[in-house]
Amino acid sequence: MKYKRLSKEQFLELHQEFINFLATQSITAQEWKDIKANKPEVAEQELDVFSDLIWEGVLSKVTYLENISERHMHLFELAEKEMKLISVKVLNPEIDLRTKVGFGWFKRNFQSDFVEYLTASKAYGEDKNADKFGLIQQGAVITKGELYRWFDEMIG
């Protein structure tokens, strides 16, 4: 398995897609029940293959990721040839960017001496989607990129 197996909730959301996936392999509903009951290792493999296919599709389309912690924001733009990073560090120890109050403080003080910015870019390794997935494994979430674009305009 290249990525991570989808959760039970994700499989439920993608129920129809999974049925279509099985159909492409000429596996009927009855055959799938039989496989689950009598060949659980084959069923596990099918779940893993389907999960990887879904992840590949998602990762190939993702353009922005955000990883926000108590006092850091790591905002990524996943361009064609490289990953671009805008890193924001809040130096005020009383602030938690994950809270409404903390983010409100940040919006009022983003140009103060209590906030540091860093930009960087890095070429992808051999597998662009694996690099993206690594960021997700570290806590990044897929976004539409509003924050990244706002900062890019502000500090660019």
TrEMBL record:
Name under which the protein is recorded: Histidyl-tRNA synthetase
Matching InterPro entries: DUF6495
